């Protein structure tokens, strides 16, 4: 089924590559929104003056809003124009525009609400990725699994994405993080509306472009935001929206584990202070409560892993 497709290109310090990126976008795309995010290099002016592609529309920010803010401006313009699928591509040349059909396909075929790139499928090509970036992305990916609930996804900071317009309208744009946490926060928000998300394999590509993202700089900030989203997701999905046996496993598992660890630590320190051995019965009770709590929490995680959305929500949403 043919869908109206738009591409959003956040534009900030990408003047060396953006014209080439636009030139490589195929005819499967009907509209291209270049969002000049108060770019000091004048990338919006460059595109407006030198790009002759009739599909291109330049949008401008007077103040820098970050990659998330630029993407959302493009989303709003695409939604106003009645576009059905919105693809986000960076303007720095790291994302190959010829892959756009692969991001569109799962959505157009009714298999997903949102698709995102994954640079970790091909083990040969990921050797191009700098080691620190590779390790940082692996750590961020594990934190994202916990906070978003999408356990089968990887490479959460990958900004090559596509979304169905119906699903985009369900999101509260004002609540989304506007800067580097944007892609991961999107996954969290998508999970709250039970959207189906899939990974699209892509190669890691690094040329002479310079990324503004530094894993060491944002790791601590991401950790705190992941923790926040994790607790929100658990509350939304297992206590506010619904209560299942997994909710009980979480409550009793956490309670027993905390009690077991705290009790064990207390009796151990008490024994050291008094120079006495801890009674066997106490040791057994602490061990049993700790193991029982751990087992219940593992059961909850198993339920959470299996509790991923299966049917794209856009199929059931009204026009």
Please, could you describe this protein's structure?
With 319 residues, this protein is of the alpha/beta class. It folds into two domains: 5-226, Spore Coat Polysaccharide Biosynthesis Protein SpsA, Chain A (Alpha-Beta Complex); 243-306. The protein has ten helices and seven strands. It has helices at residues 18-23, 43-50, 66-80, 100-108, 131-148, 165-170, 182-192, 215-240, 245-274, 280-306; strands at residues 5-11, 31-37, 56-61, 85-88, 114-118, 161-164, 197-201. It has a seven-stranded mixed β-sheet, with helices on both faces. Strand 1, helix 1 (18-23) and strand 2 form a beta-alpha-beta unit. Helix 5 (131-148) packs parallel to helix 8, helix 7 (182-192) packs parallel to helix 8 (215-240) and helix 9 runs antiparallel to helix 10 (280-306). The protein is elongated, with a radius of gyration of 23 Å. The relative contact order is 0.12.
